[in-house]
Design brief:
mainly alpha, two-stranded antiparallel ribbon, about 350 residues, 14 helices, ABC transporter involved in vitamin B12 uptake, BtuC
């Protein structure tokens, strides 16, 4: 081998190594999921039983729905800390309408709505909270972290005020009042699969299509990649940002309805700290905290990692306090690995440019 060929061969090997490393980095979430399943199946033989897998999948559906909305927000360059509180507020509003109806003291009457109207109203409420987040961020230039932190406390406070901190129990409704059927949403099955999982699949498919195949999706990426350039190119940045927060609020309200339906009860503390699970799932799935990068498919895999990790630790008997520590470390490590991947991609792009 000539003196010129040796460096070229070394360069080729280095490029191959970097390419292999990049492939492993891109598949890191899927690899982590497989490893977690293998580890917990050894530690807890019942982990792979049908009942356990269904339970894990239902929990994953909740994390995934929150993470789908969170992914859109993060891609646009923002963050939403209010999703967990919206979950609690949505459950309390639905529970209150089922058990107490809508009191019109001025007329001395109480109106009871059917379940479909209650669900639609609750979804509109969650979307409205998201719109408030978007309004604060786009119209008053409040930082997303601060704006959603404020609505997080406000939504949780309203959830507590709704029942004076108490639970709305026995949300089965009444045939006489025409508001029965609410438990089906959380406990029902279609083709043997829980309705919550079908909802996750449907919302995930719609979000993935919107993100990749529609102008709104392209605008979300553009705003997160370079907001100033997006604005100069004619994209209505304010509207795009508001829409992603509205979608996030909508997804959170869905989760609130599912949880209240499954438990047949609504508690104001439901969803506490769930925003961390949503952020973790999105970041694990490859969504960059810097904005402009992310996929719904990756987020769904990330949600499975969080779900398997959470339920697996419960089955093994890991303390709840240690569970919080581990989840925190997972988020930090995921961000570090994501940054390492971005640096490696930039380095490879420079090498290709240099020939």
């Amino acid at each position: 081998m000539s003196e010129i060929a040796k460096p070229l061969a070394g360069t080729g090997q280095k490029k191959n190594t970097m390419s292999l490393g990049m492939l492993l980095l891109k598949a890191r979430t899927f690899i982590a999921l497989i490893l977690l399943v293998v580890v917990f199946s050894f530690l807890t033989p019942s982990f792979l039983s049908a009942n356990s897998l269904i339970l894990v999948a239902k929990h994953v559906a909740l994390y995934a729905l929150l993470a789908i909305g969170m992914t859109l927000v993060i891609i646009s360059g923002g963050i939403d800390l209010s999703v967990g509180s919206i979950v609690g507020l949505a459950g309390m509003i639905a529970g209150g309408l089922i058990n107490e109806g809508l009191r019109l003291d001025l007329f001395g009457v109480t109106i009871y709505f059917n379940v479909l109207i209650i669900i639609l109203f609750t979804l509109l409420l969650g979307t409205g909270v998201g719109a408030v987040n978007g309004f604060l961020i786009t119209r008053f230039n409040v930082a997303p972290f601060i704006a959603t932190l404020g609505t997080m406390y406000a939504a949780r406070g309203f959830a507590l005020i709704r029942s004076n901190g108490e639970t709305f129990p026995n949300l089965v409704g009444s045939v006489k009042l025409g508001n029965e059927g609410f438990p089906i949403l959380g406990a029902g099955h279609v083709l043997g699969i829980p309705i919550a999982i079908w909802i996750m699949i449907f919302v995930g498919a719609v979000a993935a299509y919107m993100l990749k195949k529609t102008p709104l999706g392209w605008h979300i990426f553009a705003v997160g990649g370079n907001e100033k350039a997006a604005e100069l190119s004619g994209i209505r940045v304010r509207r795009v940002k508001t829409i992603v927060y509205m979608i996030s609020g909508f997804c959170s309200a869905i989760v609130g309805l599912i949880v209240a339906s499954e438990l047949v009860a609504a508690h104001p503390a439901t969803g506490n700290t769930w925003e961390m699970n949503a952020i973790a799932a999105a970041v694990l799935g490859g969504t960059s905290m810097a904005g402009g990068i992310g996929t719904i498919g990756g987020t769904l895999v990330g949600a499975f990692v969080i779900g398997v990790l959470s339920d697996g630790m419960v089955m093994v008997g890991v303390s709840e306090f240690w569970q919080m520590v581990i989840k925190g470390l997972v988020i930090v490590v995921a961000v570090i690995v994501d940054q390492f991947q971005r640096n490696l991609e930039n380095k490879m792009a420079l090498q290709r440019k240099d020939g």
